[in-house]
Prior knowledge:
By secondary structure, the chain is of the alpha+beta class. It has a five-stranded antiparallel sheet. A three-stranded antiparallel sheet has the order 6-8-9, covered by helices on one side. Helix 4 runs parallel beside helix 8 and helix 7 crosses helix 9. The two termini are 25 Å apart.
Amino acid sequence: MTDARAILAGIPGFGGAVIRAVLSDGPTNASYRVERTGEQFVLRIDKPAAEELGLDREAERHVLETLADAGLAGAPLYADTARGVLLRRFEPGRTWTRDDMRQPDALEGLAVLLRCVHALPPAGRRFDPLGAAHAYAKQVGTPRSCRLYEAAAAAFADIEPATPALCHNDPVCGNVLDTDDGLRLIDWEYAGIGDPFFDLAVVVEHHGVGSSVARAFLAAYLGREPKADDAARLEQQCRFYGHLLDLWRLRTGRADGC
């Protein structure tokens, strides 16, 4: 907390701001709710694992600016990408749970939001999910992680190439916010240019969405009834993501759903 206060004090105009709460303290960063003259902000500070995992904060800043231009996210107020420091306005709202991710009506809204994101001009760097799987396996360095990577690589080889688009790449329930202005996605650190169906697979596979609800979600995203090729494409991405998720959990020691 001492370092966070020192970093906050060094941001122009925030010398008198106060840290009110720790919002999160995860493997790659810690986030704090900050108050200044009655306004609320979020200060995120990277940990060493962010660099180890290859997170590109300059690319993330570009993504956030693109989203802000489209009204889909708030623009960063301060970004020191070299030190991994980001300051943005606090967005009040209710964070989704796994139960939300299994409700057809709720998923319809998320499908529309993801479609809007994917329609934006591509921004950031290219997202390499197989490269991420390899990095996780190498960092764990056990026979199990090697087997999981081999399974991930085999599943990835079956995925048909897709037209790249701007993707969130981590739309888990904890990154979906229900606000007065509608649904918002937060935490864009993995965002970049990738396959839109990877985003859909994260929603479905990460949260154990049933087949009938998953089909309705896919239909809402496409704006039409899915064809056999659409369903197969989502299934391929789900299979790969399942292995990637196992590697992530092995690397972080986490077993939580979001």
